[in-house]
Amino acid sequence: LFEIESAVGDVELEALEYVSALRGHIEGGGDPGGASPPGCSTELSPLAARLLRAHFVLSRGLVERSMESKLLLLAALSGEHVFFVGPPGTAKSMLARRLADVFEGVFFEQLLTRFTVPEEVFGPISMRALEADEISRKTAGFLPSANVAFLDELFKANSSILNALLTLLNERAFDNGSARVRVPLWCAVAASNELPESPDLQAVYDRFLIRRAVSPVSDEAAPRLLRAALGAPFARAAVQTPRPVGAQRTPLLTAEDAAGARREATARVTFPERLLRILAELRHHLRTEVEPPVLISDRRLARTVRLLRVAAFAAGATAVRELDLLLLPHVLWDQEPMQADAVRQWLLDRFAAVHSRFSLADARVRQELSHRRLFIQAALDSAAADLSELRFTLENQLVEVLEAQTRLRSQLRNAKPGGGAGVLWLEPAELAQLANGVLPGLAAAAGQAERQLQQVLELLSIAGLQDEALRRGCLEYLALRNGLPISESDGASPWAVASAARDASADVKGGAPE
């Protein structure tokens, strides 16, 4: 019995040391010293510092508008447009005006109705051009000359305006008479109290990559809103006033900053294959399993990839991360804002898919271990080969779940205040969803995978024992401890014989065994 217990102890220690070393290699190699996550710089870049300052300017004095401010900055940085849907009085137009102030750009806004004529948006016809038998618009002060535009009640516009917007928004070009001219538009912000229902509106709707439902301030935050209203300095500041002639002010961000960020993101930020697969799976899920289906155009999908790379670059990363994919709920919804919640939940479930796979496989692995343990006694060489294959599979699965766990922990640690090197695009509530919804499952899966791998390593070591009686005794010892069935083979069990001998010895001495 002592020989069996000693052999099992050696086997267990060897397996435990191997699994612990594997965990240490994954966790230590991916995050040396626990200082900063892989793929991230350690200093706040000048661009990130300006973005943080711009976010403060956009959101100051406003309650529950932090995420909207971040999305506007990300859109301007990426060269994309933003669509806000929500009731009146939720600061949609104010945010657009502030964005123009951040860039020190030319601002244009227009409330659109079915009676709005193109002259109100694109400028009046030039009388001088008409005298020369040409049709040309005087665009100064109108949308074709603006850097930031706010188009209120977009979907109430008539077809002549909407058709002209297609090229202007997508290609930054405007057909002025017989000439196609470039426009200096950085970002267009559209707003509506309702979502488009007509298929004719889908083309212009698709031009707005970022979409956000803006709700009134919650009851919990209403006291903050009322306290802010008592001072009301920001309500007056929201209305643009002309600056004195010759007055100069350094913009927080420039068009060159945005263009440079896009160039650097393209050159330096990679998009890991595992995340590309997740994005493709999400598109398929939205098209085939969501009702009503969410159809993601090829153009929208390609622009989404570029947006995520710019977001990662501004966050100080050299690769797109799981954290960045949590921006997708603000991009990949269509007819119902609730679809954004479905996208977010799908992503969290997908990030936890490693945990789910381990949960489903647990019973099968336990059964396989039981079979291999019994098979060792009948066909040693074949059982050892099968166990080696099972070890390879379990080791790869353990590495996968440990890497996923390490990545997410690293990203969340970097997302703490003062812990990152760049802009954090997500809000604390979204980070909490990731931490509470995914990490516990991954931790459980890692522990489960380690236990299963240890059992395989123990069986492999026992299979290598030359003494058949010792081998059988060790197998039955482990079976009893792990709750596995013991085979009913011919002859007395070495473990049973040794146990009976120990009990008999204790009875003779009149005391309990040590």
TrEMBL record:
Gene3D superfamilies recorded: P-loop containing nucleotide triphosphate hydrolases
Domain ATPase RavA-like AAA lid, chain residue ranges per copy: 276-347
Family matches, as SUPFAM superfamilies: P-loop containing nucleoside triphosphate hydrolases
MF GO annotations: ATP binding
Signal peptide as annotated in the record: none
One protein family per Pfam: AAA_lid_8
Domain of life where this protein originates: Eukaryota
Domain MoxR stretches: 54-229
Designated name of the protein: AAA+ ATPase domain-containing protein
